[in-house]
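Can't paste images in this forum, so I'm doing it all in text. The chain is below; anyone willing to post the predicted structure tokens underneath?
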Amino acid sequence: MLNSVPTPSRLGHSQDNTSAGPAWRPGELMLPWIDHAAVERELLFIDAASATQDGEKAVKALLKKVLAGLARKRYVLPPSLNAVQALAQKFPNFAPVIEFVLGELALKLSPSAKPRRLTPMLLLGDPGIGKTLFAKSLASHLGVAIKLVSMSTATSGFALSGLDRGWGTAHQGEVFNVMLKQHAINPLFVLDEVDKSNSGEKSDPLGPLYQLLEEETAKEFVDEFVGVPINASLITWIITANDESRIPAALLSRMRVCHIQPPNARQMLAVVENQYRQLRDRFPALVETLAPEVMDVISRMSPRQAGLNLQEAAGKAALRARIDRSSILRLQAEDVGEAPAVRRAIGFT
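Text version of the structure:
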């Protein structure tokens, strides 16, 4: 049992050089993610059963890899709240969410605070308003690894919780996989478009979330392939969806539901300016600012459509400059096309 593992410690060095992620920093907490004794018992059980199936052989190799690494991982705290706060400039329509996250982070950073995850969040809103991009940006500012799982193609829970080793295609799930490979015990998972997952009578892609979204039960999460409990209680979960009615009430009750409204006209100007700034970072030949007539058209699109159209318009400008033998790329209103109507949503709960 993981609860039998000693309490958090501060280690002076780390020998784990095989996992992905930044190096350990002096003074950081190292917390148990798996019990090596439980891993050894599982290996003895497999040997006693004289298992010869491919799944058993694969899990033995995986468990030996676990034993070769550390049983503890870094508990990563954000380097600064300022970087997270600055996300409001790039995602102005996410301001209420950012305020909520800042409050959660302030608690994590308060004196003598015990390790905790961010409250699981459901970002609910129209397609193309930046939910997934926001989650990725948040992870980068938190200094943790991110795992994006598209739920629209998921047909069962083994994507997260693994497939029993008795099956010919048995394998570990993404939760165990990420915890094994990363240095940090608190990575960020983004489950994209959960309302489009394909649930059936015999399988439910969302099934593992009933345990994973509860902090206490997540402390003893068992991957079906691995068969050994791991501490998944510090994982941060950000879930995106368009239709709240397609998500079970029992899961909704485990999350902070954030209704994301599309950016208003003023906010959209800021979004487009940021998108164009990022585009100029990649293609410095673009003129410094967009012409007012271009901004007028592009700012009436959704954030996703605006980003796509800016990229396409830049290509048209580059082709025109090549024909004109010019070194300057200048977007024109006709390059970005016409803006479709954007449906407005409401609220934050």
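Residues 265-335 form one domain. Residues 3-22, 341-349 have pLDDT under 50 and may be disordered.
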